[in-house]
Write a structure and sequence with these properties.
The chain has helices at residues 3-10, 14-17, 22-30, 49-57, 71-83, 121-131, 154-164, 173-180, 185-188, 192-199, 220-231, 244-262; strands at residues 39-43, 63-68, 89-92, 105-110, 132-143, 147-148, 151-152, 203-215, 266-277. With 282 residues, it is α/β, with parallel strands linked by helices. The radius of gyration is 19 Å and the shape is globular. InterPro entries: Methyltransf_25 (IPR041698), SAM-dependent_MTases_sf (IPR029063).
């Protein structure tokens, strides 16, 4: 099996790929907390980087929890936190099917996860509102790429790869997604106003701060590793199984050309939301 496909199927390599985007946003997100929490729960905690950053930032943290769906990433999170001497309780769980917990938290965070919960984000919002302490803070990030025909963000590179591989004409890419039963990332990333409407059913929105997130890579191989660790085989239904390796190579070449032409692969607006539970929800 090709190494990049094996990585995509296992979602391995996130410790490296997260340096390209998610880790850069970590301090920016935590800066929005506005409190020095004694308890923190990070949803979709990945390899534990935000938990580690929070432990270093707030030495008064008494309870540090993380929930992650991927057993591999949980194992990596445990190793990273243990190596840094940080005590944390890490649980495996699906964010759309979490059991109630007896604990409540002063701060609940979630970064680079929301689009994977579409269209059921409110299921998690209800859970979060019930697990915040009184006056607790919910911090989460959302991405809002420019979208055309429902395609946006990573869909743009994928569409270019499909066209170059002769798998779809440009005007047929959206239809190919539909035929494969695959939701484009441009659909998963709701517009900010549509998202706000859903958030405000459960929380008071204190602030939304936005900035562009530019993705830059050293070469084609680095982009392939980033895509494999971040998206896994999500886009595989669009490509014949016998051409999946070619698909990853093509994505890498497109990313490399964009770096040479524009100095970046892509740029997507990212927002940090600071929320508190509405009265009666907590």
């Amino acid at each position: 099996m090709n190494a990049i496909i094996e990585q995509a199927r296992s979602l391995d390599g996130y410790q490296d790929s997260s340096e390209l985007l998610q880790r850069r946003d970590q301090d920016w997100v935590l800066d929005r907390a506005g409190i020095e929490p004694r308890s923190l729960l990070d949803l979709g905690c990945g390899i534990g980087s935000l938990l580690l950053g929070a432990a270093r930032r707030w030495p008064g943290l008494q309870r540090l929890w993380g929930i992650e769906r991927s057993p591999l990433r949980l194992e990596q999170a445990r190793a990273q936190l243990r190596g840094a001497g940080v005590e944390a309780r890490l649980l495996e769980g699906d964010l759309l099917d979490l059991p109630p917990l007896a604990e409540r938290f002063e701060l609940i965070s979630m970064t680079a996860v929301l689009h994977w919960l579409y269209p059921d984000e409110e299921r998690l919002f209800r859970w979060v509102a019930r697990h915040l302490e009184a006056q607790g803070v919910f911090l989460f990030t959302s991405h809002h790429p420019f979208a055309e025909d429902g395609l946006g963000g990573e869909d743009d590179l994928v569409a270019q790869a499909l066209v170059e591989m002769g798998l779809a004409a440009p005007e047929r890419v959206a239809a190919l997604y539909a035929e494969a039963g695959l939701l484009p990332m441009g659909t998963r990333t709701r517009g900010r106003e549509a998202l706000r409407e859903r958030v405000e059913r459960h929380f008071r929105v204190d602030s939304i701060v936005s900035r562009p997130a530019a993705l830059r890579v050293a070469d084609s191989a680095e982009y392939q590793r980033f895509h494999a660790a971040t998206f896994g085989t999500y886009f595989a239904p669009l490509v014949p199984a016998t051409r999946l390796e070619e698909f990853f190579v093509r994505l890498g070449r497109i990313a490399e050309r964009r770096m040479q032409a524009d100095g970046q692969v892509s740029e997507i607006p990212v927002s940090v939301w600071r929320c508190r539970a509405r009265e009666g929800e907590a």
